[in-house]
Amino acid sequence: MSSEKTERLINLTLGLLASKRYLTKNEIFRTIAGYSGTPESMERMFERDKDELRSAGIIIEVGGIDPLFEDEQGYLIRSSQIQIQPNDFSKAELILMVLAANYWSQSNLDDSAKNALLKIASIDSGVTEQIDSNNGQLLVQNFNHESSQIRSLISAINSRRYIKFTYKSLDRLVAPIKLENIQGFWYLSGMEDRWMKRFKVIRFESSVIILTNTEPFDKDQMMKDSTFADNSEMSLQKLQAFIRIGKCNNLRKNGLVKPHDGEWESLELDFTDQEQMIRDLLWNGDDVQVIAPTTLKSELLDRLQRLI
Amino acid sequence: MSESAVDRVSRALDLVPFILENPGIEISSLAKKFKINEKQVLADLELIFLCGLPGYTPYELIDLTFEDGLVTVIDPQVLDKPRLFNEIEAVVLVLGLSIMKNVINDSKRLESINNLQEKIAAKFSAIENISFTTSSKPKFYDLVSEAMSSRRSINLTYSSISRDEITQRFVAPRSIYLAQGNFYFVALDRKSNQERHFRMDLIIDCELSDDPGSEEQTISEDANLFDFRINTRNKYLTERYSELFTDISQQGDSYHARGRMNNREWLKRLVISNAPDIELFEPADLKKEIEERALRILALYQ
Q1: How far is the C-alpha of A148 from the C-alpha of B278, rounded, in Å?
Q2: What is the pLDDT of residue A238?
Q3: String of b and e for A148-182 (b: at least 16 CB within 10 Å)?
Q4: What does A68-93 look like in DSSP terms, one character per residue?
Q5: Which residues are in the WCX domain (chain A) (predicted)?
Q6: In terms of residue numbers, what domain contains A74?
Q7: B178 — contact with chain A (CB < 8 Å)?
């Protein structure tokens, strides 16, 4: 890492941020500290510097200097595009943001939450000091995802760039559309070929590579051309069973229970996920006896036989 | 791996406004906040000290002092404001605000949260495509929360999943958390003095006790070692209970998972409900009990 380069990048940022008008390359090379050498080498240096600053989220605006000389381009950084302005957030809003960021303090997104808190503390240090992160408020836990992967996916969705990753042993090229957290797991919806598919992020077998060299995809057009992959292996079924009186609380709360005899009650319950239903039934041991569907009953008995 | 120049630039742009708002901050505190060591903080400050606006006279350079371990920015030049939230920070804030909306009661505050979410999301088109779904707010959330903040205990009627029983409990809530979309709380069971986790939607009834919350020490239990082999086709199981497994590795078409658990009834139910995908090795004495239970279930169908 070169300190000279870091110093030049900071000086370039400050120079473009302080300027009230577009600065030409010549003005930049003449006035910003750190540019030296032949015109070609300074040009190459500047192109690399611009790319690096942009990769850090610093927006460098390019504009014409003189309407009569369209070739002459200039560069500028607007404070409103990279800095939080003094009146952007009220004190009440800063407090809400601190509370919202603190929810993540025991999750894998804690690093990003802490960075947001640092920025809030740079606006009003009193707000973050007032609110103790361990003041007994709600915490998000057991968030078993690589935060770098989630960051990459959010970034790719935001920039509408294709991504590559390995999933179920296949290399995938996907246009990422949507990221959802359902019951603690993140799912990515995206277009692979012309199919809209959903991928469970925890099952990615590689890191996510964002294809920054490709053009951003047209999300709206892509949605129009898409075909949804049919994942509906699940059809609605009805469970009929006997459950012991006072038992099987996880089943009875979702079903229709009627008296049967002194020991058992009858239960009717609609379900779609047979796997989950078998697990729920087996969880209750000999407190439940399945009547129908017969296919589910025989699968359940087969699994039990294999335990012995 | 050495740090890139652009990472250092980003940190410098964050350090200056932070120090400006927190004058006289200790270098050790800065190191902690920015997750770097004190040597790196000093190197960053020395670098920032050399930077400024064209002209580069003392009036145009960023001016700061760092003596006796304390740092103050005298003149930040144009770095007087923090950088905008980046996309992931914005997502964390917006999703956090969504969770907050789920648990608050104040309609005025709800409106403020909606406005704030819109304000943050306005700069990032991706946010409308990112969502975090939780179960709806449990009926007794506010009461548990009140018990926790006022350090009081509560009487619970609770539907225990592992024992399939409705139980009466007397507990002192200590913290509330959200895991896998459900709201839970950790509490000290006042009878056993042991820490227990409760899922809020399984509370049937709940009332605040006049008994002040307990400061008693938790008695830790000796948890049993469990040792499973899980078929790879049931990968969900390893994901669902990943926090329980202290050690997990793949061997051919199965995962070898180990951990500690003091609830033997839960272990038995887990093995039977996931049969035949889990093979239990430890605790060895549970194997016989599992087999007996399987035989009792089969007997119902003969």
Answers
A1: 32
A2: 93
A3: ebbbbbbbbbbebbbbebebeeeebebbbbbbbbe
A4: TEEEEEEEE--HHHHB--TTSS-HHH
A5: 257-307
A6: 3-82
A7: yes
Find the CB nearest B129 among A139, A179, A282. Answer: A179
How far is A109 from A131, CA to CA, in rounded Å? 19
Q: What is the mean pLDDT of chain B?
A: 88
CA distance, residue A172 to nearest chain B CA (Å) = 21
User: Contact B272/A203, CB-based, under 8 Å?
Assistant: no
Say what the ipTM of the complex is. 0.84
Distance CA B113, CA B110 (A): 5
Interface of B with A in 106-125 (CB under 8 A): 112-113, 116, 119, 124-125
Tally of CA atoms within 13 A in the half-sphere of B32 that contains its CB: 5
Number of domains in chain A: 4
- pLDDT tens figures, A19-66: 999 999 999 999 999 999 999 999 999 999 999 999 888 999 998 766
Q: Are residues A78 and A96 in the same domain?
A: no
Of the pLDDT bands very low, low, confident and very high (cuts 50, 70, 90), residue B260 is confident
Shortest CA gap A130–chain B (Å): 14
Res. A268 pLDDT band, cuts 50 70 90: very high
What chain B holds in terms of domains, given with CATH numbers, is: 5-75 (1.10.10), 87-129 (no CATH), 141-212 (2.30.30.530), 224-300 (3.30.70)
Strand locations in chain A (E): 23-24, 61-66, 69-76, 139-140, 163-167, 170-182, 185-192, 195-200, 209-210, 227-228, 237-244, 256-259, 264-271, 288-292
pLDDT surpassing 70 at residue B31: yes
CA dihedral for A62, A64, A65, A69, sign (positive or negative): positive
